[in-house]
Amino acid sequence: MAYMSRIILMMTEVVMQKKNILLKKEFQPVYIWDSCREDPHNTYTFFRKELTLSEMMSCQVMIAAETRYELYLNGKYKRFGQLQCSPQYKYYDHFELQLSKGRNCIGIIVHCSGHKNYSPPSLAFELRDNRGRALLTTGDNWKCHRSEAWAQDTFYFHMNKYAPWQEHFDSNKYDPAWCSCGYDDSHWNDPVHCAIDKVPECLLPRTLEYYDERKVFAEKISRIDESIWLANRAGKDICAELSAPGKELENAVLECPEAILTKSGKTVVSCSTRHLAGPFDGVYEPTVVLDFGRVIRGFVEFEFAGLAGGEEVLIGYAERLIDGYFNNAIEGNFATKATLRSGKDAFRARNWRAFRYIKVRFRKFYSTAKLNYFRVNELNYPFEQKGEFKASDKQLEKIFEISRGTVNLCALDGLY
After folding, report:
1. pLDDT class of 193 with cuts at 50, 70, 90
2. Which of 12, 168, 275, 278 is the most buried (most CB within 10 A)?
3. Given this model, what pLDDT does residue 54 score?
4. Contact call for residues 187 and 86 (beta carbons, < 8 A)
5. How far apart are the first and last CA of the chain?
6. How high does pLDDT run on average in the chain?
7. Quick one: pLDDT band at residue 102, thresholds 50, 70, 90?
């Protein structure tokens, strides 16, 4: 396997050199991190810096982070990365970024997994103009802040090394203005430089193409149920609640569920509210299992309107159903929880998952709210399809397409 990986790497580098993508001048990274000395595992740290340009400019970005990053420019999401690789030999991302005349704000979220096989947490960033001159480099004049919007002590699924933690996000603790110009970061920390023995020994320019991204909706609804909320039985792993069997809708509300399969925004959600008027046997929460028709890989995205604030959306991922039911508590404990703010609120998961089925459980929806959309930002490596397979036996053609799809699913940062 190691021999094949070296061959693939060599072939990829040759292709990228022909496309003249590799940088002419080597990246000399300056690594920084938050001065907070607390345990960094499963933390999300914000970094920001403003700069002023005399004209609109297409710039070259070079960035390396441990474990993953999201890049924002003037409040807008631009890109995520990076390639997961050996701690000794790491890759940095490099790409073009269009900056505006006047003030610009660079914002970066770094999620540190804290896995022992990875490097210590760090960020290195450089912005160059079209003549190769450095306009901005990570250093003392940046500001950083460890976010409280993500819970740190969530369930850890040991089988996964890329993103082993369940993501629990609270939108009420997240200020979207943090990556915009003029934000008051005076209460944030000054970064510290990372010790030389705590950074990668060798940093190489990325040789793989960047991912293709597209929005997809589920193909059909597999099940609609309601489940009682056993609040005093909840633990770290929310997959247990997502895997609980339900019953036919009687107390909870899920109107126009078929609209979830489109972007029409007509689905209405509400939990049972009889407990608010007097004694009742509990709170019933609507649940829906979505079937995307095939195993895909990507980030979940959704938006609600008419929220009271404090509602929670629990999302579970599975590649198959077990005896016709969703159950990811016994294999692949991948799940996400988002707590929403009042009014209109949107959420995008920070870790991609692979799945065919998604189960969504709606919690604390004590007044009706409208689901504007629920979709997945699907990721694929941009393979060039140069051939096809035809046979008199149509089953062989199906097997070939399944094999092609499997290779695609197993190839994003590398071959798995």
Report:
1. very high
2. 168
3. 96
4. no
5. 10
6. 90
7. very high
Which one is predicted more confidently, 382 or 21? 382
**Strands 353-363 and 284-307, sheet pairing:** antiparallel
For residue 294, what pLDDT is reported? Answer: 95
Residue 92: how many other CB atoms lie within 10 Å:
23
Residue 380: burial class (beta carbons within 10 Å; 0-12, 13-18, 19+): middle
**If you search the block for the tokens 């496309």, which residue do you land on?**
19
Single-letter residue type at 396: L
Judged against a pLDDT cut of 50, whether residue 20 lies above it is answered with: no
pLDDT score of 409 more than 50 = yes
Copy the structure tokens of residue 127: 């912005």
Express each pLDDT in 324-334 by its tens digit. Answer: 999 999 889 99
Task: Write down the pLDDT at residue 269.
Answer: 98
SS3 for the chain, per residue?
A: CHHHHHHHHHHHHHHHHHCCCCCCCCCCCCCEECCCCCCCCCEEEEEEEEEEECCCEEEEEEEEEECEEEEEECCEEEEEECCCCCCCEEEEEEEEEEECCEEEEEEEEEEECCCCCCCCCEEEEEEECCCCCEEEECCCCCEEEECCCECCCCCECCCCCCCCECEEEEHHHCCHHHHCCCCCCCCCECCEECCHHHCCCEEEECCCCCCEEEEECCCEEEEEEEEECCHHHCCCCCHHHHCCCCECCCCCEEECHHHHHCCCCCEEEECCCHHHCCCCCCCEEEEEEEEEEEEEEEEEEEEEEEECCCCEEEEEEECCCECCECCCCCCCCCEEEEECCCEEEEEECCCCEEEEEEEEEEECCCCCEEEEEEEEEEEECCCCCCCCCCCCCHHHHHHHHHHHHHHHHCECCCEC
Tell how far CA 370 is from the center of its chain.
24
CB 315 within 8 A of CB 360: yes
Count Cα atoms within 13 angstroms, Cβ side, for 70: 16
The rounded distance, in Å, linking the Cα atoms of 220 and 262 is 10
Cβ 48 vs Cβ 184: under 8 Å: no
Beta strand 220-228 with 335-339 is unpaired
Whether the pTM exceeds 0.85: the reply is yes
Structure tokens at 183: 């934000």
Q: Could you give the CA distance from residue 122 to residue 286 in angstroms, rounded to a whole number?
A: 41
Q: What is the mean pLDDT of residues 109-119?
A: 82
